[in-house]
Design goal:
The chain is mainly alpha-helical. It contains three helices and no strands.
Amino acid sequence: MTKDRFRKYNELEADEKEVLDAFRQMKLMSDYNRFRLYNYKVEDLINDYEELKQLIENIQEKYFSIYEELLNEELTEGELDASVWGITREQENETWNSELKLMCEIKTNFDMAINMIESGEANQSIIDAENWK
């Protein structure tokens, strides 16, 4: 068995700290770029949800407007039953809103991680953790 032990960051020689710092920076840059990529993808998905909800609303408005015109012109028969559309919209909106909320939470986490890396807080947290080992 060896008597070697792991040393804390503040116990390392200057050249050892330099190597460790370089590896830490590479890892942080890798994480930073990965977080930015997925942050962009999540943000794009959030925008798609918002556009989808707006599109569905526009389609529904057009549907009822045209259907009402057709009834007024006696080009179709029947009643306009908005309750079916309303129930379907409510169910869709509940699902989309829960998915959208999850994506917004994920984006918030990415934003925080990116800000921590940019500010140097992540780097300092790692150094602090290394000193406590």
